[in-house]
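User: You have something folded?
Assistant:
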Amino acid sequence: YGKNTIKFLRLHREGKKHFVKEVEVCAHLRLTSPQEYLEGNNSLVIPTDTIKNIVLVLAKKNGIPSLEQFAIDICNHFMTTFCQVAYVKTYVQEVPWQRLHEDGVPHIHSFICVPDGIRFCEAEQCRNGPLVVFAGIKDLKLMKTTQSGFEGFYKNEHTTLPERHDRILCGELFCKWSYGECKDFDFDCIWKKIRECILEAFAGPPDCGEYSPSYQKTVNCIQMHVLSRVSQVQVIEVALNNTFYNVVDMKNLGLTNDKEVFVPVEAPYGSCACTLGRKKFFEA
């Protein structure tokens, strides 16, 4: 799990001359225990908000002498500071700013949301080997407005995220699964059934829902539900890119906002991912 799309500009001054580095950072960790996925125990989880703050603090203290060195600094910090971190991976991407000699052209991004998700599949085959088929769904944006929280996580001097027992859970889901060796399956039927399983596990029963103690636990619930209901699936990968919503403070407007008006946090956003499979498949 970790934090994606941490964007910031680092300004360095040498007299009247300024130098800038604008970067986008993705920092992912693997912990020594998967208890936050399997048990919903967040005691070892370093919040993705804390990960973001550490990246910004390192940029302030160390600067960015080079992209490579900055990535090394991030990895060294997590490895030397947190005993529960077993693995860290850092991606750093630079925005290509150049000194202005003529009028510049602004860079533009555009996004599209496909509410129903996009179906996809992959097929692999080696000569003299079996045909292997993968299928999946991506760009599936899901939300539930309650029955979600995040409490009991690891805290230190870099932690600013408050504990919450009732929050909006929203994310864009990517799911990919393997059937193993290809057989005479009804792929249309299986894909629809898996999509139903994803929605059921995310939302819970329609009359009451089901509490999610973390995005990680929700990811695991989706995987377990699919594996328990669809015998043809051997391995399933689920990634959930989180969209956070903050309650708007309306005190200065003379109003009390009882969790009725929210604003989305566009970036940075958290990301949780896990791959789960049947024991027999990995033994094979």
Notes: The mean pLDDT is 85. The chain has six helices and ten strands. The CA atoms of residues 250 and 257 lie 6 Å apart.
